[in-house]
Amino acid sequence: MIWNPFKKKDASATRAAAEKPAKKESIEQRIERELDSLPAIIKGKLKDPEIKKRFIDIAKRMEKDGVDFKSIRQMKKWMKEHEAELRSEQAGAPAKVETVVHEGPKIGRNDPCPCGSGKKYKKCCGAGK
User: For 84-104, what is the mean pLDDT?
Assistant: First the structure.
């Protein structure tokens, strides 16, 4: 017998499918199942439990906001919209670099060295600069 996609489905099979509650997979289960299909660089980083937890937390937030995980465009758009808050939440984020402001007068090459040696700055503390 040949399978016909246009043939009406058997009513009993349809009823049985409707009665069976659809079991929804959690994010954790989907990530575990699809771990092999992820790029190697991501797969390697997900071995760290902290990174894996963060990855799952972000995926849960995306799911809550209604992002379709099959659409790369939607995921990139969501990441771009939430980039600032994700960076601020990131554990161990590097501190902002502040500009060093020197206080006091500028020392010239031929001025006496501030260390008190009596030599010119260029011959004393400024020799290696």
Answer: 74
Q: CA-to-CA distance for 46 and 48, rounded, in angstroms?
A: 5
Residue 120, SS3? strand
**Distance between CA atoms of 119 and 113, rounded to whole angstroms?**
6
Mean pLDDT, the chain, rounded, equals 76
Q: Specify the pLDDT at position 50.
A: 81
| Rounded CA separation 54/95 (Å) | 20
Q: On the CB side of 59, how many CA atoms lie within 13 Å of its CA?
A: 15
**Between 81 and 36, whose confidence is greater?**
81
CB contact set of 90 (below 8 Å; sequence gap of 6+): 54
